[in-house]
Amino acid sequence: MSVTTAPAPSSGAELGPVPRPEPGPVRRGRPVASIAALIGKKILGALFVIWAAASITFLIQSLLPGDRATLLLNQQTGQVQERSAEELAPINEQFGFDDPLITQYVTFLGGLLRGDLGTSYTLYQPVTTVIGDQIVPTLVLTFTALAVAWALAIVLLLLTARRTPWLSRIFSGLESVAAALPQYWLGIILLVVFSLWLGLFPVVSGSGTAGLVLPALTLGIPLAGFLAQVMRAEFERTLDEPFVLTARARGMSDGGVRLRHVLRHSLLPGLSLTGWAVGAQFSAAVIAENVFARPGLGRVLVTAVNGRDLPVVCGVVMLVALVYVITNLIVDTAYLLVDPRLKETP
């Protein structure tokens, strides 16, 4: 039986076009719809944080033992004594203390939705006025302390990270000690040493520039230790990256490599904590303002808590939550500036 074989193609036969591989997916930035959805989720999360902070503060203040009307009347008269129902009736009617708790809560939330934080029980002023009169010194102290913390952390990293083993170990330990320092104790030590013994700074800080130094250091030193701890591992890891070796091979100095290349890549862990740090510094200003007798929201909040002035307490707490939320939104934007890769979808 004969087998027929197909003729082999001649050497001059034309071959068909070679198929080209399909191009892979192009990495593009996030679409507008995705960005809008992301912003919407963040705004909803921010509203939830503010609502939760206000609700928890309302419940805690409302459920504390003792009669609020009696406390307010005693504060007005300057006499601590039991009060009759007839004496308390006008105050209960004015502030709605006799209403059921759920009614008080709904009224409270309704005022918040209208932008009305209420009237101070003790100062008889709108809460917005009370907060507005004292917010500037607190904001100045908060962001000055934050700047001090970042400056100290960056200087520590640039000068000590991956130098000699003993130097790195010493400063790494000092960072741990600084991060663990109680702010109240540190403030008293700084006040005694630099104000009472050396006389370099005023005992009562007031609102001057010289009076801002010690409170800012009180809040900034522990935060600097914490930031340096968080960024040191990333800083030392980045020193071994290939692009760092390439920069050194091109003749760039060690300081230039650390400042221009390594520092930028090690900022992300610190930036991720900045939103929390601003809220923490804002609330910790209560300690510094009381230790150094500075004006600000700290003293207002302490007075309001002692007097169970619910509108002022809730107003300050919601302001702290608002600062925390806004700062986190700014930090998310800063992420994109520091690391452009985050602009792309995976």
TrEMBL record:
Q: Point out the coiled-coil segments of this chain.
A: none
Membrane topology note: Multi-pass membrane protein
Domain of life from the UniProt record = Bacteria
Family stated for the protein in its record: Belongs to the binding-protein-dependent transport system permease family.
Q: Which species?
A: Citricoccus alkalitolerans
Q: What is its main location?
A: membrane
Q: Which protein are we looking at? A: ABC transporter permease
What the entry lists under Pfam families is as follows: BPD_transp_1, BPD_transp_1_N
Q: Which PROSITE patterns match?
A: ABC_TM1
Alphabetic keyword roster: Cell membrane, Membrane, Transmembrane, Transmembrane helix, Transport
Q: Where is this region: Disordered?
A: 1-27
Its subcellular locations are: Cell membrane
Q: Membrane-spanning residues where? A: 43-64, 135-159, 184-204, 210-228, 267-288, 310-338
The answer to whether UniProt assigns keyword Membrane to this entry is: yes
Residue ranges constituting the ABC transmembrane type-1 domain according to the UniProt record:
135-335
Gene3D superfamilies reported in the protein's UniProt record: MetI-like (1.10.3720.10)
Q: Where is the signal peptide?
A: none
Q: Does Ribonucleoprotein appear among the keywords?
A: no
